[in-house]
Amino acid sequence: AGCRHIQVDEPVFARQPKKALDWGIKMLDRCFEGVGEEIEKSVHICCGYPNYLDEENYMKADPSAYAQLAPALERSCVDAVSIEDAHRHNDLSLLAHFKRTKVIFGAVAVARSRVETQGEIADRLRSALEHIDAERLIVAPDCGLDATRVIKGAGGESELQLGSAAPNARSGGPRAGEHLRRSGFEDTCRPRDSRHLLAKW
Q1: pLDDT digits (tens, 9 = 90+) for 6-20
Q2: How far apart are the first and last CA of the chain?
Q3: Angstrom distance (rounded) from CA 18 to CA 25
Q4: Percent of the chain scored above 90 by pLDDT?
Q5: Is the per-residue pLDDT at 102 higher than 60?
Q6: pLDDT over 60 (residue 199)
């Protein structure tokens, strides 16, 4: 019973990494003071979003921000760090900074009308797996607060659907074109690590 996952959606760390390193990540740890070890604690680091769908030339955080923050986040109390990779690919060597921390990996761009193909997502995940073990790579859309959709497979198992990416023949899942995010913050479903999806693809 009770909450099993708590995620903080952090809008400023990537835009002001010096302040995040000076005191912001310490305050993040304070947010989780008193939270039991049985609760998974995660943080989404937002890089910024446009004013409207398909806007391209909007202000984003510095591309190096995640790499600057990664060592301190690895030392923090969080169990998982959610990062964006679909709207602008990262230098994936940053994943090697995370030795114990799970990475919730944004593989679907939520601010574009075009939906990534299954092959595009799978290729990017395989590249990520050159820098982090599969057990700690969790697939997600870019946005930490995007819409969640959970469906039940024929055997009653909860399945993740990411746009056109996840196979949905068994379930009669959503139409291609819907942007769907990682599930895992509800009792009805566990986060799906990269092995679960790539094994099916």
Answers
A1: 999 999 999 999 999
A2: 34
A3: 10
A4: 58
A5: yes
A6: no
Query: Is the Cβ–Cβ distance between 50 and 111 less than 8 Å?
Result: yes
Token pair for residue 185?
Answer: 């913050």
pLDDT of residue 115: 87
Amino acid letter at 152? K
Q: For the whole model, what pTM was predicted?
A: 0.75
DSSP letter at 97?
A: G
Spatial CA neighbour of 14 closest among 87, 51, 69: 69
Question: Which tokens hold the place of 166?
Answer: 């996840």
Give 13's contacts (C-beta < 8 A, 6+ positions apart). 20, 24, 25, 45, 65, 69
Secondary structure letter of residue 117 according to DSSP: P
Q: What is the dihedral of CA 156, 144, 89, 25, to 10 degrees?
A: -130
Residues 6+ apart with CB under 8 A from 179: 108, 110, 115, 141, 146, 147, 163
Encode 115-140: b = buried (16+ Cβ within 10 Å), e = exposed: bbebeebbebbeebbebbeeebbbbb
Report pLDDT for 112.
87
**Tokens 């056109």 -> residue:** 164
